[in-house]
Design goal:
By secondary structure, this protein is of the alpha+beta class. It contains four helices and eleven strands. Helix 2 packs parallel to helix 3.
Length: about 270
């Protein structure tokens, strides 16, 4: 029985749709290094009942206008991360408890050597063998045997791995967030720092826009805290946490969605 052409098209469409659905569900894990410092003033720690609650975000880089689309995108991610700690944006700068300075970018690229395992394959078998084949004449009668060559293709098998060095270019992406008391500068010195969080991640990608929500996600559990030393957190994307940062939902981050450091059980 012949299958109709439209049935073939429907089967192909279904297969492609399932493949795209599977690709869209893939999750990647990124390692982000986070270093946080807390210097609460006399009013208490940020996010506490007695500490600073409201903020306004400013660019730490004077050359980067706050109307820049990339800056506004980064600022939205940071605002969402701050909201995850119960903080909120003040209606005006004058009414803010603290000014949050935002800085992000790509560090100068650097190269390094790394070892890559390369599979080694070998061909096995194959060659020529000879067989005796009965031949027939035009009338179908057996006319004797003749020798024919039979060619057998070799098989390819994995025999091991070679560790070979390769040179790669690494790009460090960074996101620095610093909160200061909302007061005028005194004697040329900036207002007192309340807390700061520095997040960095590095690999062969220089797609800063992709990594901004990932780094912002890594800062959520460190805002207003002192990490004591640099910690490595693993961020999955997509995940409940990164979806929260990207969508800008003004609600607390579920505890289960917060990142875990390398010192914690993964």
């Amino acid at each position: 029985m012949t299958t109709k052409p439209h049935r073939h098209r429907r089967q192909i469409f279904l297969a492609v749709a399932l493949a795209l659905l599977g690709a869209g569900c893939s999750t990647s894990t990124y390692e982000v290094k986070v270093d946080a410092i807390s210097k609460p003033d006399a009013t208490g720690a940020a996010g506490s009942a007695s500490g600073p609650q409201s903020f306004r975000i400013k660019s730490k880089n004077p050359a980067l206008g706050e109307e820049n689309l990339r800056y506004r995108e980064a600022a939205d991610y940071v605002k969402t991360a701050l909201s995850g700690k119960g903080l909120f944006e003040a209606p005006t700068e004058e009414k803010a408890d603290m000014i949050v300075e935002l800085e992000y970018g790509l560090a100068a690229p650097r190269t390094k050597l790394e070892t890559a395992s390369t599979p080694v394959y070998a061909q096995k078998g194959g060659g020529v063998r000879y067989e005796q084949v009965m031949t027939t004449d035009a009338k179908g009668n057996n006319s004797g045997f003749r020798t024919v060559a039979v060619y057998e293709p070799p098989s390819t098998e994995l025999v091991g791995y070679d560790d070979l060095p390769r040179q790669v270019t690494i790009y460090e992406k960074y996101l620095h967030i610093t909160a200061r008391i909302n007061q005028p500068a005194s004697e040329g010195r900036p207002p007192a720092e309340i807390w700061s969080v520095n997040a960095t991640t590095e690999d062969e990608s220089k797609d800063l826009r992709k990594y901004l929500p990932i780094m912002a996600s890594a800062t959520v559990d460190f805002i207003g805290k002192d990490s004591a030393h640099e910690k490595t957190v693993r961020i999955k994307d997509p995940s409940q946490l990164t979806d929260f940062i990207k969508k800008g939902m003004a609600e607390p981050v579920p505890v289960a969605a917060r990142p875990k450091s390398s010192a914690e059980k993964i």
